[in-house]
Specification:
about 35% helix; Ribosomal Protein L4, Chain: A
């Protein structure tokens, strides 16, 4: 699968790169994609929710009425969950929502996501670039040249580049990651995936195992 290489001004450089069919042209596995996205979203949850239960409520331990003869249900404590101000019955406790997912399933999910984007023609290959200093305007100019200023975009770098990352940090619709940080959720959440030339080799080596 051959894709033209563009420069940061959005013009064709005349060169093409060959994207591996083993990564960008497989039969997508929707269930693997579902599981990987579910795990990613579950890991984003803090899980710090907490409600006080009966034993944690501060209040009197006095028996509020006699056991028999009232014609109503027995009541031994004002802390009971059936009374206003009492403890929560089976309330939420701090917990982790994360779950285990096999590496092979995660690789299959990422390959499926890249294949979906390739079929939609939503993958752009950009020649490697750098900025002299972090500046949002420089990154905005690149987005305008690629007609991505009003779309969600994901830029995948081959190696960490602090200037490019810091230049994009103020833009909510743009995300910059290294090839090793690529996730199924981020691929599918972006309208356009922009791969830098140096990132392709890393992506294919990571996902071809």
């Amino acid at each position: 699968m051959k894709v033209a290489v563009l420069d940061i001004k959005g013009k064709d450089t005349g060169r093409k790169v060959d994207l591996s069919n083993k990564v960008f042209a497989i039969e997508p596995n929707n269930h693997a994609v579902y599981l990987d996205v579910k795990q990613y979203l579950a890991n984003q949850r803090q899980g710090t929710h907490k409600a006080k239960e009966r034993s944690e409520i501060v209040g009197s331990t006095r028996k509020i009425k006699k056991q028999k003869g009232t014609g109503t249900a027995r009541a031994g404590s004002i802390k009971s969950g059936v009374f206003r101000g009492g403890g929560r019955i089976f309330g939420p406790r701090p917990r982790s929502y994360g779950f285990k997912l096999n590496k092979n399933v995660k690789r299959l999910a990422r390959k499926s996501a890249l294949t979906i984007k390739a079929k939609e023609k939503s993958i752009v290959v950009l020649e490697d670039f750098d900025f002299k200093s972090p500046k949002t305007k420089n990154f905005t100019d690149v987005l305008k040249a690629l007609n991505l200023e009003s779309k969600k975009s994901l830029f995948v770098l081959g190696t960490p580049n602090n200037n490019v990352y810091l230049s994009s940090r103020n833009l909510k619709a743009s995300d910059v990651v290294n090839s090793s940080e690529l996730s199924t959720y981020k691929i599918l959440n972006a309208s356009q995936v922009v791969l830098l030339e140096s990132a392709i080799e890393g992506i294919e080596s990571n996902l071809s195992k």
